[in-house]
Amino acid sequence: MKIGFLGLGNMGGPMALNLLKAGHQLSVFDLVAASVKHLVEAGASAVGSPAEMAKGDCEVIITMLPASQHVKAVYLGEDGLLAHVKAGVLLIDSSTIDPISAREVAGAAVKHGNPMLDAPVSGGTGGAAAGTLTFMIGGEQADFDRAQPILAAMGKNIVYCGGAGNGQVAKVANNMLLGISMIGAAEAMNLGVSLGMDAKVLAGIINTSSGRCWSTDTYNPFPGVIETAPASRGYTGGFGTDLMLKDLGLATEAAKQARQPVMLGAAAQQIYQTFSQQGNGGLDFSAIIKLYSKQEG
Amino acid sequence: MKIGFLGLGNMGGPMALNLLKAGHQLSVFDLVAASVKHLVEAGASAVGSPAEMAKGDCEVIITMLPASQHVKAVYLGEDGLLAHVKAGVLLIDSSTIDPISAREVAGAAVKHGNPMLDAPVSGGTGGAAAGTLTFMIGGEQADFDRAQPILAAMGKNIVYCGGAGNGQVAKVANNMLLGISMIGAAEAMNLGVSLGMDAKVLAGIINTSSGRCWSTDTYNPFPGVIETAPASRGYTGGFGTDLMLKDLGLATEAAKQARQPVMLGAAAQQIYQTFSQQGNGGLDFSAIIKLYSKQEG
Amino acid sequence: MKIGFLGLGNMGGPMALNLLKAGHQLSVFDLVAASVKHLVEAGASAVGSPAEMAKGDCEVIITMLPASQHVKAVYLGEDGLLAHVKAGVLLIDSSTIDPISAREVAGAAVKHGNPMLDAPVSGGTGGAAAGTLTFMIGGEQADFDRAQPILAAMGKNIVYCGGAGNGQVAKVANNMLLGISMIGAAEAMNLGVSLGMDAKVLAGIINTSSGRCWSTDTYNPFPGVIETAPASRGYTGGFGTDLMLKDLGLATEAAKQARQPVMLGAAAQQIYQTFSQQGNGGLDFSAIIKLYSKQEG
Amino acid sequence: MKIGFLGLGNMGGPMALNLLKAGHQLSVFDLVAASVKHLVEAGASAVGSPAEMAKGDCEVIITMLPASQHVKAVYLGEDGLLAHVKAGVLLIDSSTIDPISAREVAGAAVKHGNPMLDAPVSGGTGGAAAGTLTFMIGGEQADFDRAQPILAAMGKNIVYCGGAGNGQVAKVANNMLLGISMIGAAEAMNLGVSLGMDAKVLAGIINTSSGRCWSTDTYNPFPGVIETAPASRGYTGGFGTDLMLKDLGLATEAAKQARQPVMLGAAAQQIYQTFSQQGNGGLDFSAIIKLYSKQEG
């Protein structure tokens, strides 16, 4: 299939490579020349602008951009995709942005005659490279069915979440809960250990009890409890604190627009912000347990 | 075996019954005559005071009391258990109290020549009746081994947590995390639904993603998502808000003594307190989602 | 002086009237015809659009709009003020918006040859009618000096806060602290009274001690403590909960952009949001004390 | 007058000295010999135990102790004050403890025939030395009138707060609000400065606006804003973070017993606890602003 891919960063780059490997013809664009070069060497053809991509003969265009202002600019800008793309081309935005903006862009696309899906992912750069991402999809069921085999080249779980924007809703809701659970796990583990318990014994009990969560049984923030977790390798790799902070920012913004209180969600955002301001934004988000640990004098 | 059982309330009553059913000889005490009568009719013999029980020939004495002041009074009071009990009798306290008090009482017992275990339970009145409680045990390993077959008549999981007080530590740490996760689940579910998602679809996604926790996959607070959860029967039964509030009070108190910050733990305590003050202390704790729901005018 | 006034709502309407009373010639615009009519009857002349106002001969144009998207549209829109206004005309935006947006608009104005001030107010509709508002001004000192006599017709305190956007910074910082202090006052008053103290005695002690703040000595949230405060008249009038919520939304948004943690500011936002969601958004913000009060069964 | 003084630490020592200077005869006790020696050199006579003091001929006994367990031991212990003191001797406890314990001790005293006042102070060691403390008094009005001239030798403001325990209530309520306001002030000042405002200009605006509080106009946490505040001398002296933490612990404990939510009070406690755990417990509590400041790499 002829596919356009716009945004070849840490996530978009390996995702595009997996599409090439699956045998698709790829037309790519990014502002960073080196990123484009890497894909061209792997067999993609480069275009000079979103407008040029839109004017081409892609059947599907996928975008992977940092934030909602970039998504709006690329789709809705004067010389953007919607100004030039043929009706019927399927548009898929894999950026993580707020649901309201996602719906605004999807509405404009549909009005222009283009089916559109929001398709944010989870799984990190590791999942992007391995083609094991989870896609959370919002849009029409028929468009989801059409996109499914394409996305399957890049991900393992392709989940339909309902109408436009719902992919983003699912992602911010899940990640807000994740951000809260991880801090809760850090507090519970540190409390138990400071009161004299062995960390592995405590984790074992929690993991067979009602406190059980992904943050304790799969990604425990206490060093040494789970050998494969970032906590056991100095909090390197994984899902960075500043990325969690971005997602919590989207969640509280969406909550504000929906006039929905999220007391722990907002508290979690501020706690990670405090930790990031102390210079830890690049560590895996489970490193938040360090904010709760006694500092050596 | 000859066992004394002190405290025959909502939890202690059915636990004592299960010991009788297992063939043990039971000597019981409670301030409430009706509670004693119920056990006597089932085959137990009644004593008139903790002192009388201590002076008897029980090999093991089990206590199940509301709070640390009762535990201290019964064990350490002028006419309490330790003033009269023979050395060597195994003492098991199943009350949920703060770890510091548990260690204080255990220390006094050991000094007096009595092995002691703290053995708080989870599983609620349903688990007490069915004999499926989880016991979290702190104390010496040898005493744990001795107690294990007795406790097995009342519970399904008998978990050794390490030295004295560690049963209480495990319980407050687990329940603090549970209290936080449930509020996080309530916020995430309500945020997603208020942004237009179907509750069951959202729960399905979270339960296969990193936000997964017992509060979403087993005890989801959104009505109708899990048919067997209290949320699907008007938040009746289950684990009451005021009981969760008690456990969070123990957790933050223990954290204060350990000089350990628990930001979300303390926030959770205040959120349940707000909900309880609005008259909802008797509802299952997952009803906290109602604090986050739009009130009809 | 010939002045344009754009935005004649609850605040803008009475402010414009005070300019008329001070002898200025007024050209006005609003989307709501009744608001315009009211001003025209008082002596103003109406124009049909921002563009028409910009093309006229106003020496100064003042805007008073609900939110940053309106400010951006009116100033930066294709047919907005900056597309048509003569260089040198002084632009004053009295809307309360986030500092970043204020700086963006001011930057565009200056580039276009127009001095611009951000001039948000405090004092409410009462202060707008009485001409006793406080203006917090960001921009060049010389432009502040030029604006000062005009603003003096509408306000009592005209405070220079430094460069562009600083009027907005001062307002969000002050109002965030106000929102926090009021909740703190509500908690302290309710705690003291629930522990048996007389509310007036407690307020008297706090007001001569280190807990003293505007929220206790001038605007105490406990009914009956200060006769002139909204608390003593059913929380009517004053500064609405939803307006406080808007300002806290601006504060936490600005903090997010500055990567600055505001833990209590974010908590305050969520607490007012909870109260608003329960149907109390129209009450004075000091009514937040009701969220902390026992509900009658 | 013949006065007994029990507890000669950082606060009690200088307070006792001021009683001597005012011409009273002083009988003193402390576990630390050096503290007693200092007072004896200044003219006091030493006794060997609380019991000996109680058996003596003091007309008034004043206690100044670290925490409620010490107060209970000294008053209610087997060999404590109430076991030996003559009926009619006025008892004054200046310790800062929780209101419930204060009422328990006062109730026992009254039952024994001794009028008792709770009389916690604010003003710190500086105020204790200068004789300018504020006393917050709970108990009978007649006893307050009797104590007033004695306390006037140690303090400037002697405030009657109502029945037994109300002195403690007033202190915890005031200090909880203080702890909240100071964090609010820290967040507002840091937010404003990080957004580009001058700290002194911002403080000036807040101090004439609705955000005004003792923490901004008298004790501003931003360095250089108020020359006499601890912030302008490296956060030395003043009121230590760990003392604020103790008072917030009393406030949240009292709130728990009263079933009264204190969301920001509990958040403040955790924030100071986090700061203390990072090694800053000895700094003045206004140093909390450092938790909100960017750390140098």
UniProtKB/TrEMBL annotation, chains A, B, C, D:
Chain ranges of the 6-phosphogluconate dehydrogenase NADP-binding domain: 2-162
Domain of life: Bacteria
Residues covered by the 3-hydroxyisobutyrate dehydrogenase-like NAD-binding domain: 165-292
EC number, as in UniProt: 1.1.1.31
Annotated transmembrane regions: none
Single biological process term from Gene Ontology: L-valine catabolic process
Catalytic activity line of the entry: 3-hydroxy-2-methylpropanoate + NAD(+) = 2-methyl-3-oxopropanoate + NADH + H(+)
Active site positions: 171
Pathway noted in the entry: Amino-acid degradation; L-valine degradation
Pfam family, one: NAD_binding_11
Keywords: Branched-chain amino acid catabolism, NAD, Oxidoreductase
Gene Ontology MF terms in the entry: 3-hydroxyisobutyrate dehydrogenase activity; NAD binding; NADP binding
Similarity section: Belongs to the HIBADH-related family.
NCBIfam families: HIBADH (TIGR01692)
Protein name, as recorded: 3-hydroxyisobutyrate dehydrogenase
Native species: Pseudomonas marincola
